[in-house]
């Protein structure tokens, strides 16, 4: 999927996607012609990034939390990453998710 398609489906601007890529939150591949191609699941990943950021997590923490997002488990490492603000962040994340 091309960057414009991902942006439109995710409801964000192309600049947001490029920013996420620069922050190592989103990954794309390049075609032989140099065009950016986002993998399947990119729209859902952008939505999750948006929710985590809306819950108040800084991008450095979002980057670390993303690998745990698909598992549905709360591991000790995830709790360590979230630190003392874990209860507030989880509460805000649930609020964002239900909105």
TrEMBL record:
SUPFAM superfamilies: Putative DNA-binding domain. Pfam families: MerR_1. GO terms for molecular function: DNA binding. The lineage of its organism: Bacteria, Bacillati, Actinomycetota, Actinomycetes, Kitasatosporales. GO terms for biological process: regulation of DNA-templated transcription. It comes from Streptomyces minutiscleroticus. Residues 1-36 form the HTH merR-type domain. This is HTH merR-type domain-containing protein. PROSITE patterns: HTH_MERR_2 (PS50937).
